[in-house]
Amino acid sequence: MKDTSSTPSRILVVRGGAIGDFVLTLPVFAALRAAHPQAGIGVLGLRECGELVVAGGLADEARSLEGREWAGFFVEKGDCDEGVREWLARFDLVISFLHDPEGVFEANVCGVSGARFVAGCHRPADGTGEAAAIVLLRAVEFLGVSIACTVPNLRLSPTEPNELKRDVLAVHPGSGSAAKNWPEKNWAKFLSDWLEQTDTELLIIGGEAEAERVTRLSARLPRARHRVLLRAPLVDVARALSGCRAFVGHDSGITHLAAAVGLPGVVLWAATDAVVWRPPSEAMELLQQPIAPDAVLRAVTIFFK
Prior knowledge:
The chain is α/β, with parallel strands linked by helices and 305 residues long.
């Protein structure tokens, strides 16, 4: 059994969930990095999220939890992959935010690594009156790690590093849930009016869930005034956002990412508990749906003055 009372030399953070859940966990990585600057930090989660946190300098290595080699760790006394066993044995502290009510994953990890295991909250509950990022940070506060900032912060160089932030408005007209989305006709009106009334350009971001919507919206706009970033790697999306002036989106992972890279903007909110799940950036203004396109236009214009 390892001596887990000393300062950890290698820390593993395990985080499942969607992009927004991961971005809200960034303060955990920042707190660990500040408290243990000499420690190696690994991340186990969605492949793209791991790549993102490594690119931002908050972790040193990443592995994908989606691989078949992890299947045995979710079975009681499972047949665990030998290569994964050897990798886990290198860590002396594991902080997991996985949903593991029976402790199966914890038992398997501890059985092969001997590391100290800390179970964090996998999903903060609605109605608690506490922001998700603060709830997630309790896992490291329990370890005596001081918390300098509860706001997700990710700094990546923009796609074109020699340019200042250009007059580009980034928009993400979708989300993982249709119930969160502003009607497409409203997006079409807003985007058209925006280009007519300003000299700016548009960056329209879309993933698999909103690919068709993005294609339809793009077809109605002048090609010289906008570009589309569709199904791009998350690191590329973050870098592209870093070169923009402001952002408009829904309650989505890309909105959380935009806030984390430092963009101001407007979030078209629907029914989710905003106290818990809104981006904790003061630069992001929430507008409750239903809302008219001209009201969104006025709210966004202020960021370009």
